Protein: GH92 family glycosyl hydrolase
Amino acid sequence: MTRFFRTAVTAGSIAALCAPALVMAKSAADPDPRSAYQSVDPFIGTGGEGHTFPGAVAPFGMVQLSPDTDTTCTVRDCYGHAAGYRYDDPTIQGFSHTHFSGAGHSDLGDFLIMPVSGDTVKLEPGSGDDPASGYRSRFSHDSEVAQPGYYAVTLSDYGVRAEMTAGTRIGIHRYTFPADKAAHLVFDLRTSLYNYPGKTLWSSIRLRDDRTITGCRQTRGWAPDRKLCFAMRFSAPLSAHRFVSTEQDVTYKGFQGPGRGTDAVEAKQGRALVAQLDFGTLTKPLEVKVAISSVDEAGALNNLYAETGDFDAIRDETRTAWTKALGRVKIDAPAAMRTNLYTALYHSLIAPSVAGDADGRYRGPDNEVHQADGFTFRSTFSLWDTFRAEQPLMTLIQPEKVNNEIIESLLASQQDSPFGILPVWQFQGRETWTMIGYHAVPIIADAYLKGIGGFDADKALDAMVASATYGPYGDLKDYMAMGYVPIDHEPEAASKTVEYAYDDWTIARMAEKLGKDDIAARFYKRAGYWRNSFDPKTGFVRARKSNGDFRTPFDPTAINYGSDYTEGNAWQYSWFVPQDQAALFQAMGGDAAVVKKLDQMFEFDNSKLDYSHAEDIAGLIGQYIHGNEPSHHVAYLYDYAGAPWKTQNRLKQIVDTQYKPTPDGLSGNDDLGQMSAWLMFTALGFYPVTPGSLQYAIGRPFVDKAVVSLPNGKDFTVTADNMDDAHPYVGSVTLNGKPLGRTYITQGEIMDGGRLHFTMQAAPNKQWGTAPAARPYSMSTAR
Structure:
């Protein structure tokens, strides 16, 4: 039973959830009659290492209002709580307003609120082992409800029913307190995900009237010197309050802080602030409306009043927004797969998040305030992950977000950057410098080549070239001079060399389309630099020293952070030449040698290897690591070697073992939607191995039927006959009724609408799609 069907007979429970439970009498093989919205299970990925959160968020919303089960971890053990909530934790510490969906690093968890009932209010969180030692509470999963834009739970120790919903820039709490007990809120500005002493540099809180509180805080975490402000409005007046500094106790009358405008009735500032907010006994639920802003308090107040309506009104608006967004793909598949896929689509639509205020102001990577001109500034760019499938998926189902939102935000960040380069891993406008490459480049190029406009292409190309030629970044200076990154000058050099080469190819493709032949020729040459890190003797991509020698000793299975490779080893990175797999395969010895090596990768015996020191190495199938991104295209590479039936077999193996509709249903971090986007594309039967090529490699479908509603008003439909475990192989493929003998489809064919049909069979078809001319794009063989 999926989490969606659990209900609780408690104050504030949602009776409407009882109706969908009736479908459980159907067999798992029957089409699921629930709507796309009802099919989403936000609990998928909240256990294991998925790092997703179950709380309320609007599509691409600025606020992610979700429970935190523990923020008291230290830097060394916060990995498991990167999204604040872990399904196996027994207590909830409170509800904070900002969270990453599936990141491999923790931060955020801003402005935590915890409802408390009774006469005694503790201002310290206490521990999960002893919840009575603080303000946290125990809870039962049986009382939880999670839907897109809505979360609810009963806090057992207080008898409080807590509900959450969210709009674009706001979150709304609704708390139903016991009628015979006093109602309180603990508002903690000290807590954060990725805690350590001194993370909170400064904070402020001020009472504006008996229903309104504002303030800000400045933190030093994953992103240095991050500023975030809030505005909070209550549906009932405060009866009393306490603003407490647990580090120092100084009250400032009329404190202005970083905000603008109205004097406060009372204010306090310091590095360790917590508030007790009292409401007496309440005869109806208390609603708490909260807006945030990275600019100032005035921005937060403006955001607060820009979205009108009470809890139910905002919930309805967000449900409508999610229904529309999820409805762009209509899926007919067995119930478990349908839940997996609609949840994957939901996770794909959470980031990049709105980061600009309703008035257009935003804080940029220079930590200054800027004004967006005709677009909404967005951030939370996990680009090393999402360039692969997440952003290509957006070009099909959310192109309006790509052109005048995502790309304009990337370009604005480049203009605002003190270094003049595009974002690497950015959130709330602040750069973290996490991961490698300059992967904003393929996102822009892929969109432009697909005909998605609305931005200045010449300006975009200039930004791309600036990023690719900024010598201090990732030792690009040596890469440009020597044709590779030397390991004795720069860590993770083997990975950086091949990732730079792919990004360079996308620059060349866009420059060529723009008629900038000199730039195109320069970057096509750089696109071949992967050869300088390929060792023909071992058949692996390896790190080289500045004297030209490959570094020794060499172990292709070794994974150590800061060594030759980024979150992987030679087995994963030796396949990363998406722009020219044909040339790589020739260097490896041809099709037969490549097929053998791919088989060896998937069938490798890991029994004597220990990767427990590497947090992101999860979902192993031999040396294929589905829980981390460098492997994501590898199963499709059999297509490029003339053995597409092996791609079909491996995809079945991956989908069956790496995804399930349970809290531990993701084998690794969702990484802002990349794991989910991989499943969405794969289920449709094709995947963007090489964003920028305008092609998708064909695998095999995992749906009986799917209809993608395209932005041009047309539909692209995927259908399959004999879709069951007994028929795992593709027997034949037709496109618009005509036989399709190649192992790829094009962007143009999708955008033209029509039908891609698969006939599945029990045995592999070893004739279909095997000819060299039938294979997907490679730079050296492009026709």
Confidence is low (pLDDT under 50) at residues 1-30, 249-262.
